[in-house]
Write a structure and sequence with these properties.
Elements (H helix, E strand, L loop, with lengths): L1 H15 L1 H18 L16 E3 L21 E3 H7 L19 E4 L19 E5 L2 E3 L5 E3 L6 E4 L3
Antiparallel strand pairs: 1-2, 3-4, 3-7, 4-5, 5-6
Bound molecules: zinc ion.
The site of zinc ion has 6 residues, from loops.
Length: about 160
Amino acid sequence: MRDTEEQLVRELGERIGYGRLMHVAEHLWREKALSSGLQGTELTIGPCARELVPCPCPESGRDVAGHCDWCCGTARVTKRVAVAIGMPGISGRGAAFGALERGEHFICWPVSGDNSGHGGYLGAQRLLVKTGELTANNGNGIESSMNTRMDVIKVLLR
Ligand SMILES: [Zn+2]
């Protein structure tokens, strides 16, 4: 039965396009749901997979039943949602500390500030190396605590 269903969908998808097949199916399901007084129960299709990242399904995003309120069970979210969730390795600007491997070098993303210890674009950037999940070192043996969401610029050394 399952093989038969897959073969039917494959044949139609190859014939009219899989995206078109899903759009038409959503449209027809919506019409059926509306006429049955069950509007909103139909599934919808979303963006292309390459626009999405895996959802960590964080506890903070679960509803009272324990279902993920971020991805609605699809296990995928947009990058912007991932940033809002605070997913390790996903940054609003590019790389985040959490995405680096141990031993990789980086500088912190420059931020505005007073240029004397509290950010600022005029200060020198220190080259750091990731030493642990939440630690980095600037080569002097002193460990610094890091945040997985901290914006960084990865530096490739040769
Ligand atoms: Zn989720």
